[in-house]
Design a protein that fits this description.
It catalyses: (2E)-4-hydroxy-3-methylbut-2-enyl diphosphate + oxidized [flavodoxin] + H2O + 2 H(+) = 2-C-methyl-D-erythritol 2,4-cyclic diphosphate + reduced [flavodoxin]. The protein has 363 residues and is an alpha/beta fold. Helices cover 42% and strands 18% of the residues. An eight-stranded parallel beta sheet has the order 8-7-6-5-4-3-10-9. It has a five-stranded mixed beta sheet with strand order 11-12-13-14-15. A two-stranded antiparallel sheet has the order 1-2. Helix 11 packs parallel to helix 14. Bound molecules: iron/sulfur cluster. Iron/sulfur cluster (SF4) binds next to loops.
């Protein structure tokens, strides 16, 4: 089932699934008991465009701190809980917008009933998270090292549906599901199979994707493949990195697929022996300046900016952009909306581009 046809689930101010925009999530790596550090990180994530933030809730002290965190932030807050239904009850009492918990892992039926009732009373959604590394059906896999990704997908989907069934039998429908593995074939197969089987919207991501470079490549392929087939209501890019970079990467994936607009589209060449200007440094600084300034970011959203090394490909790309520079020797030919305007020294490139962005209205 593609995302346009899934049921809709509210999480805070957002409606997920059912054709609504794909939302970007991240997860804090602060100690949830540390109110100031967690709020500060979520505010940084929000400034980077993160729309839904998840925190780990390992104990009651962390659960009891969620209300204070919620008061200090603007985005929906998700409590990530394993095994202990009392933590889920406390998190809901503290005002979180979604709980990530697996009903099949929290013991007696009455524990599940209490969590579901509390979630219903407060309008809180529940995400069921199925990870290939911690499957309930792990026994079925033991001694079978050569399972295909499709066989993995069947087991992961069955586990997710069993968990969802527990909630649906209690007439609870505000469910999201995630099916994650640390490799592409299983992640893609599991999400595709689940999407064919159920109308529950999916939160998609590759778990433990790795370092910035390898994690970005793997996540881009996995999420790109699924999103292109209209699978996924929310995404998270897991990287062993600052969570802000996870958010930036998630938006780059959505932008590349033309699914969301966020920040400018910066075109730059890889440079070669013809280049007599510093393109890499210019692009890095330009991005840093734009993404660290809320007003600039809003105004730059939807703009195409080309920063090119020389006259071989430079004028063509620069002409095709809203603003473009084609490098020469320590200077560049400056284009606005397809027209060559003037030559400017490299030292003035960044301020010239930023000033032009400021003059534009937000798209
Ligand atoms: S635009 Fe010029 S400097 Fe950049 S890669 Fe092409 S030929 Fe080389």
């Amino acid at each position: 089932m593609n995302t346009k046809k899934t049921r809709q689930v509210r999480v805070g101010q957002y409606i997920l699934g059912g054709g609504n925009p794909v939302r970007v999530q991240s997860m804090c790596n602060t100690d949830t008991r540390d109110t100031n550090a967690t709020i500060a990180q979520i505010l940084r994530l929000e400034a980077a465009g993160c729309e839904i933030n998840r925190v780990a809730v390992p104990d009651m002290e962390a659960a009891q701190n969620l209300g204070k965190i919620k008061k200090g932030i603007n985005s929906p807050l998700v409590a990530d809980i394993h095994f202990d239904y009392k933590l889920a009850l406390e998190a809901i009492k503290q005002g979180v917008d979604k709980v990530r918990i697996n009903p099949g892992n929290i013991g007696a039926a009455d524990n599940v009933r209490q969590v579901v009732q509390a979630a219903k009373d407060k309008g809180v959604a529940i995400r069921i998270g199925v990870n290939a590394g911690s499957l309930k059906y792990l026994k079925e896999i033991e001694g079978k090292p050569n399972l295909t990704s499709f066989e993995w997908a069947e087991i992961m989907t069955r586990e997710a549906l069993d968990q969802a069934d527990i909630l649906e039998k209690l007439n609870f429908k505000d469910i999201l599901v995630s099916l994650k593995a640390d490799d592409l074939p299983r992640t893609i197969a599991a999400n595709e199979l689940f999407a064919k089987t159920s109308d529950i919207p999916l939160h998609i991501g590759l778990t433990e994707a790795g370092s910035f470079l390898s994690g970005t490549v793997k996540s881009s392929i996995a999420l790109g493949t699924l999103l292109k087939n209209d699978i996924g209501a929310t995404i998270r890019v897991s990287l062993t990195e600052d969570p802000v970079l996870q958010v930036r990467t998630a938006y780059e994936i959505l932008k590349a697929l033309d699914m969301r607009k966020f920040g400018p589209d910066i075109i730059s060449c890889p440079t070669c022996g013809r280049c007599r200007v510093n393109i890499a440094q210019t692009v890095k600084e330009l991005e840093n300046r734009i993404y660290s300034d809320k007003e600039l970011l809003a105004k730059a959203t939807g703009l195409k900016i080309a920063v090119m090394g020389c006259i071989v490909n430079g004028p063509g790309e620069a002409r095709d952009a809203n603003f473009g520079i084609a490098g020469g020797v320590n200077e560049g030919l400056w284009f606005i909306d397809g027209k060559a305007v003037s030559k400017i020294p490299q030292a003035d490139w960044i301020e010239t581009i930023l000033n032009k962005i400021r003059e534009r209205n937000a798209f």
